[in-house]
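Example: DUF559 domain-containing protein.
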Amino acid sequence: MIHLSRKRTDAVPRRRGVIGHPLDIAEADVVDVNGVPVTSIARTWLDLAAMLPIEDLIVAGDQIVSEYIRSFGVPKIAMFSKADLERFIASHGRCWGIQKARLAIGRLRVGVDSPPETRVRLLLEDAGTPEFTVNHGVRDFTGAVAFWTDLACEAYRTCIEYDGEHHLTPEQQAKDMDRDAKAAELGWAQVKLNRLDLRDGGSRAIAKVRKALIRQGWRPGSQELSYNSGDFRGAESA
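Written out as structure tokens, the predicted fold is:
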């Protein structure tokens, strides 16, 4: 099914396999791709806000603003920067989906590799765990980055890896084993998740992460203590 939009002053497309939309749109929101006029990235994301659940909208947004430079691989350049997307949304008043877009943009994070990573992060945020940062470089005792992880809660030295199908290759498994060893050496609890953990509302994923956080000193519902606080060390020795 193709969604085809035209200005409100033009006739709405009506044909098999096409859903037509009347649209109020500025000239700046239309770009040319191989001779075809399409909505800009920012405008497309705003239009999606009228159609997608907020979780899916955040997933799409994370991919749009994702950028990073790591100690391996090639740098990733954002399709559209988060700051520019924020300005774009702020510049729009009443339109379909604008309230959802404003809610979603506050939950976007820069540096996400894959949609499952976003879904895991949102799942944990909604479950009330401490915040996890994305695409995090864990440093060793010298200050050098020892390994990279999908999601990390540095306060409780807990990290999460989402294992997709590419983790089944021999080369990736060797890299994963090296990362596992470094995480253990530095005192980090590592939680590995896969698509099965996200079934049924992600209850299994939440349980795994909460268990790891608790082992690392987190106490649900109490004042947060961390490895970096004197309060945590005092609690351990009390």
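The radius of gyration is 22 Å.
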